[in-house]
Specification:
Radius of gyration: 22 Å
Structural class: alpha+beta
Order of helices and strands: HHEHHEEHHHHHEEHHHHEEEHEEEHE
Number of strands: 12
Shape: globular
Distance between the termini: 36 Å
Strand order of the largest sheet: 8-9-10-11-12
Helix content: 40-55%
Largest sheet: 5 strands, mixed
Number of helices: 15
Oligomer: single chain
Strand content: 15-25%
Number of domains: 2
């Protein structure tokens, strides 16, 4: 495809690269690797995100990888919790540690601990967490014994920002819950964060999964330090495309572009999902000034954010509430209903205890 990329073509292309135009036969690990990890502020979000992308996804596959320590949940892009394959976590953490330090520097936790010897705090916190996984609420008082008069919660936050940490199961397992207990990545996986990871590899992988995209898009997604210099080094190995508004969009060479007339099926996505958080300019997915309301799942219809969903209880039934925030064609409504049934099948296997309601709020 030559010429300018319409927003609709950009939408379809990104959906295809995110495996949201057509479900993939890839396994959970391969999919997470392609997506460069998955948003995991809510422990079950990666399960819904993979279900939307993988044909026949089985949550036990992902839970098993977490239990076997093949996948871990920790702070990565933008300082937010992600679930990633262990290899990817180590690679990404190597590049993003300065980003996490910068995020910490803007918080009250850093201000509260400004007079604390940072190296000593990190070393002592690492020692404690190497011995035993703990929640921040458990870690803070132990650190406070060494630094009395400093808010214990802030001491714990500094350690868990600056020491490569992972949250351990049962937290993050499908259908189960547990405390937000942290362990050092070394004690949990037996491996350390390497030095000297290549940031150009991260840029290429982002474009494979989120592109075409602008430098601002990459920066907002990654918060990678020195990004402009990295891009300048890579320009000879990247393809440059033009957006509908004339903006520069970077891409991998020979990246597949999807025509704007390709249909996009409805997709129920979790509250936090890569595809909705991966760009500075989100106009490829958001129209009519509609934005997610928070604390609920997000619904794409015709590739665009169109409403929200939430699973709860209605009497003894598992009940899925679906709210459409914009008008959609009747045929799309039928497709939404079909996908809603599939979502309930994932969340609650007993067909006799499931129901859903579809509401038009526009």
């Amino acid at each position: 495809m030559t010429g300018r990329l319409s927003r609709r073509a950009l939408n379809r292309t990104t959906l295809a690269r995110q495996m949201l135009l057509e479900r993939s036969s890839r396994g959970a690990g391969e999919t997470m690797t392609h997506l460069v990890g998955m948003q995991a502020q809510n422990p079950h979000d990666p399960y819904y995100g993979l279900w939307a992308r993988i044909d026949g996804f089985d949550p036990s596959e992902l839970s098993g990888m977490i239990e076997r320590r093949e996948a871990v949940r920790g702070a990565l892009m933008r300082g937010t919790l992600h679930l990633a394959m262990t290899d990817d976590y180590l690679f990404l953490r190597s590049l993003l540690q300065p980003t996490l330090a910068a995020v910490l520097g803007s918080t009250s936790f850093a201000r509260d601990t400004v007079d604390v010897d940072r190296d000593a705090l990190i070393a002592y916190g690492r020692t404690l967490l190497d011995e035993k996984a703990m929640t921040r609420a458990q870690l803070g008082p132990l650190l406070g014994e060494r630094w009395p008069g400093v808010p214990a919660a802030s001491l714990a936050q500094v350690v868990t920002y600056l020491v490569p940490m992972v949250q351990i199961p049962p937290r993050g397992l499908w259908g189960r819950s547990g405390p937000s207990a942290w362990a050092t990545v070394e004690s949990w996986t037996g491996r350390s964060v390497p030095d000297g990871a290549d940031p150009r590899r991260l840029v290429r992988r982002y474009l494979e999964a989120f592109g075409p995209a602008s430098v601002s898009d990459i920066r907002v997604w990654s918060r990678l330090n020195g990004l402009r210099e990295v891009i300048d080094q890579m320009r000879s190995e990247l393809e440059v495309r033009t957006g509908e508004d004339g903006s520069e969009l970077l891409d991998i060479p020979d990246g597949v572009i999807v025509d704007d007339d390709v249909p996009a099926p409805p997709r129920f996505l979790p509250e936090y999902d890569n595809v909705l958080l991966g760009h500075a300019d989100r106009s490829r997915f958001f129209v009519e000034d509609l934005t997610p309301i928070g604390w609920v799942g997000n619904l794409l219809v015709d590739g665009l954010f169109s409403g929200w969903w939430k699973i709860g209880k209605k009497g003894k039934e598992a009940h899925l509430e679906v709210h459409l925030l914009r008008k959609v064609p009747r045929a799309e409504m039928k497709a939404v209903e079909k996908e809603a049934v599939r979502l309930l099948e994932l969340a609650h296997s007993d067909p006799g205890t499931r129901s859903f309601g579809l509401h038009a709020d526009h």
